[in-house]
Amino acid sequence: MPKSSPSIDMTPMVDLAFLLVTFFMLAASIRPSDPVDVDIPTSISDVAIPANVVLVTIDAGGRVFFKMSDSEAKRELINNMMSKYKGLKLTEKQVEEFTLMETFGCTVSELPQYIDLSSDERRQFNTPGIPYLDSTNNQLKDWIYYGNAAAVNSGRTAFEDAQIMGENPEVKDYLPKFILRVDSKTLYANAQKVIDVFRDLDLNNLNFITSLEMAPL
Questions:
Q1: DSSP-derived pairing of the beta strands 211-212 and 42-43
Q2: Is the dihedral of CA 161, 162, 167, 170 positive or negative?
Q3: Which of 3, 94, 118, 191 shows the smallest number of beta carbons within 10 Å?
Q4: DSSP single-letter state for residue 129
C-alpha cells in the first residue's frame, strides 16, 4: 500500500493558545511598583519569603517603609490606626486603596495625601518616611504593633479554613513572619533603632532579606 506522511491540523492548538493568552491578560493584575529602591546585601541563604508577612524596609537615607501581605489584615490595621490617631480621617475609598497598596512610607498626617497619589507619584513624594527615631512619636512601633495583631487574626482565620477543608495544617505556618529589608548603605544606627522597636514589642523572630549569592564550595 502506498505510504503518505501524516498531516496534523494545528489550527485548534493555535486557537487554544490565543484563548489562554487572552484569559491571562484579562485576569492578571499589574503589581504596583514599590515607592523605594533598596540595594540589599547578599548571602547564601535560600529560604523563601512566607505568605503572612510584616515587612519593614530601610532605604539608604534611613527612611522607613512598611508592608503587609494580607489585604484583610491591612484593613484591620488601618482601622486600628484611625482609632489610635484621631486626626487620621480616611474615606472608605481611601481605606480600600490602602488595602491594595504594597509598600508605603510616610507620616500618619501625610497618609491621606499619600494614598491619593499614583505609584509613580509616591516614588517622588517628599516624605521623611515613617517616624521611628523619636521615642515620643514612634509611629513605626504602632504600625508594627497593630500590624502584628491584624496578621495574627488573619493567620488564625486561614488556619481554621484549612482545618475545615480537611487539611492538617501546622499553626506555625500561619503565624506572621517579621522581615527587615535594609539597604546595604544604611547606617547601622538606623537599623539598630528599628530592631529595638521589634524588641520593645517582644517580637524577636525577626528575619532579614538578602539577595542570593553562590554558596562557597
A1: parallel
A2: negative
A3: 3
A4: -
H-helix or E-strand spanning residue 12: helix 11-27
**Size of the chain in residues:** 217
Domain residue ranges of the chain, discontinuous segments joined by +: 42-211
Rounded Cα distance between 104 and 152, Å, is 21
- The upper half-sphere exposure of residue 202, i.e. CA atoms within 13 Å in the direction of its Cβ, equals 1
Walk along the chain (217 residues) and give the pLDDT tens digit of each residue.
666 666 677 777 878 888 888 887 777 655 555 666 555 555 444 445 556 789 999 998 999 999 998 888 999 999 999 999 999 999 999 999 999 988 899 999 999 999 999 888 988 899 999 999 888 999 999 999 999 999 999 888 888 888 888 888 888 888 888 999 998 888 889 999 999 999 999 998 888 876 545 444 4
Do residues 188 and 162 touch, judged by C-beta distance below 8 A? no
Q: What is the pairing mode between strands 64-68 and 177-182?
A: unpaired
Cell of 100: 491594595
Computed on alpha carbons and rounded to an integer, the radius of gyration of the chain in Å comes to 22
Q: Which three cell numbers stand for residue 216?
A: 562557597
Nearest CA to 197 out of 37, 108, 36, 64 is that of 64
